[in-house]
Write a structure and sequence with these properties.
By secondary structure, the protein is α/β, with parallel strands linked by helices. Helix content is about 45%, strand content about 15%.
């Protein structure tokens, strides 16, 4: 059976990490399959949002480096293994991570690449790399500090601290906590709401928010205004304003 499962629920695609016997540890092949699946979904106009699921015990317990564990520095650098996470960050459609159980190491780095993270009551988040003699390589040191602030991020990175779901929501890492048995249902409901957004607006919002991490405020606001003006030429904007005027639900075409 494939390590990546995919199904459609209306305008929402559900992608599941399917290596539960290994706590969804991420291999190079598994990441390649995940990226390929996400890119295919990104090119399907009927898909408006994507939910990324793990298993009940683990969203993903981290990277399974396999032979890379004995690779030389040059071999590791040339492997492109860490860069596979970057490909997930290139997906334009909204990504929602639904976390149950462990989201550790590369698993947390994967969740951090998603636009929204929700968690159930069993979720645990951590970056324990320093305690096995390595450091994160897929953006963990950069994205975690932006998500939860320097002090907590450093405690997690240096002290190996894991945080639970209540701590994660307090820190701003996740947007909501749900009961374990309701996680998938709640993720689908949230994705369904996200899928109602105009597709072009969703893409532009993702770009604008991503830019906010790279630009000073003034440049970010200027970029937002460019996108805001650009979308004025879209058919979706006309459809949205007309529907709002007539108190109807808009039918967006993504153009």
């Amino acid at each position: 059976m494939s390590d990546i499962l995919c199904r459609l629920e209306g305008a929402v695609a559900v992608v599941t990490l399917n290596r539960p016997q290994k706590y969804n540890a991420l291999t190079a092949d598994m990441l390649d399959e995940l990226v390929s699946t996400l890119k295919q979904l990104d090119g399907q106009p009927e898909v408006r949002a994507i939910v990324l699921l793990g298993s009940p015990k683990a969203f993903s317990a981290g990277a399974d480096t396999g032979t890379l564990a004995s690779a030389s520095a040059t071999e590791l650098w040339r492997s492109g293994f860490s860069e596979k996470w970057d490909r997930v960050g290139e997906i334009e459609k909204p990504l929602i991570a639904a976390v149950s159980g462990y989201a550790l190491g590369g698993g947390l780095e994967l969740a951090l690449l998603c636009d929204i993270i929700i968690a159930d009551e069993t979720a645990q988040f951590g970056l324990p790399e320093s305690h096995i003699g390595i450091i994160p390589g897929a953006g963990g040191t950069q994205r975690l500090v932006r998500a939860v602030g320097k002090s907590l991020a450093m405690e997690m990175l240096l002290g190996g601290r894991r945080i639970n779901a209540p701590e994660a929501i307090q820190a701003g890492l996740v947007s909501r906590i749900v009961a374990a048995e309701e996680l998938e249902q709640q993720a689908l409901a949230l994705a369904g709401q996200v899928a109602k957004a105009a597709p072009l607006a969703a893409v532009m919002i993702k770009k604008a928010v991503a830019a906010s991490y790279e630009m000073p405020l003034s440049a970010g606001v200027a970029y937002e205004r460019v996108l805001s003006a650009l979308i004025a030429d879209s058919e979706d904007r006309t459809a949205g304003l007309e529907a709002f005027k007539n108190k109807q639900r808009p039918e967006f075409k993504g153009r």
